[in-house]
Design brief:
By secondary structure, this protein is mostly helical. 60% of the residues lie in helices and 0% in strands. The longest helix has 16 residues. The chain contains five helices and no strands.
């Protein structure tokens, strides 16, 4: 799944399936709500499911653009991009 970090261009990301791009967007791009850590397991599962459904509706080009922006951003202090 770290292919996006080494992709030579945005066009190379278009080779990934929409489902793979949605998963990468879910994990690497979106921010969790402030109270996410205080949610119980059912609330987290509901939020995750809702967000994934929303992300899957986004066009492939939007997902690719967001991933490219994450790759271009400098890493945070922890070493992660997001």
């Amino acid at each position: 799944m770290e292919y996006y970090l080494f992709a030579p261009s945005a066009e190379a990301l278009s080779e990934l399936s929409t489902l793979s791009l949605a998963h990468l967007y879910f994990v690497k791009v979106q921010a969790k709500p402030a109270g996410y850590g205080d949610m119980d397991a059912n609330e987290k599962q509901s939020w995750n499911r809702y967000r994934m459904q929303t992300i899957r509706k986004k066009p492939k080009s939007t997902l690719i653009q967001a991933l490219v922006e994450v790759v271009r951003a400098p890493p945070t202090v922890s070493g992660y991009y997001n």
